[in-house]
Amino acid sequence: MQQGGNTERLAQSISARLERQQIEDRVARAGLLNELNHRVKNTLATVQAMAALTANSSESLPAFRRSFDARLHALSHAHDALTRTEWVSTQLADLVEQLREQDAGLHRITFKGDPITLEPRTSLTFSMVLHELMANAVQHGALSSAAGRVTVTSRLNTGPHSPALSVEWTETGGPPVVASTVKGFGFKLISRSVERELKGKAEVEFLNTGIVWSMLIPWPDKPESDL
Q1: Helix or strand run (H / E) with residue 27
Q2: Which tens digit of pLDDT belongs to each residue from 118-159?
Q3: H-only helix segments in 60-210
Q4: How distant, in Å, are the alpha carbons of 36, 58, 64, 80, 171 from that of 185?
């Protein structure tokens, strides 16, 4: 009789554990689905905005397709970088390395400075900004010349009052650049992305040696909402 009671209690215990596990699995699946839904909606909103803005700045359908495809590839590379870290964070140096790979191994892009870890939303924004900077450099700036070079410098200012991340994109060795030739959609996208999405400030200088973009972003990296 006692053995039968023990067997029944064991069966009840196993059943209770299985039920708890099923509940936990359902909660986990629901959480993953909600997270996936949120990310997909954000990505679609980004793509929709890129399509609209690219269309407004394109003179023809082929021009739209070239620009839009390039921006989609940049967004895809950013997602790949985040996937490798399970959407936890990425390194700014890794984003710059992606540009080096796109430069066909010519070693014209250099990264210097502090190691910077970016959360997902900031990483995606920085990827798009770096893509636009490179596109402008290839079309009008330093990378339109074989002798041209780009240096990306990062510095983390950790003062007690206004800690901030400083990133500079410095071009040298290219042809003289006139402001009117580069102040198109890409120029506006860079400024707006830094100012609106990263709550920072972006400034550009047209020097005799080349274009210099200076970006100052509040730190630590605390987005208003996760992707």
Answers
A1: helix 2-57
A2: 988 888 888 889 988 988 888 888 998 889 999 999 998 877
A3: 61-84, 92-102, 120-139, 179-182, 185-192
A4: 30, 9, 12, 25, 19
Q: Identity (one letter) of the amino acid at 198? A: L
Here the tokens at position 218 are 């509040």
Interior angle at CA 227, CA 52 and CA 101, nearest 5:
70
Listing DSSP states for 147-166 in one string gives T-EEEEEEEEE--SS--EEE
DSSP state for residue 194 in the 8-state scheme: I
Q: Is the pLDDT of residue 14 over 60?
A: yes
**Would you mind telling me the total number of residues written for the chain in this entry?**
227
Written as six digits, the tokens of 151 are 């240096």
Indicate the pTM of the whole model: 0.71
210 touches 174 (CB < 8 A)? yes
- 198, two tokens: 């990263």
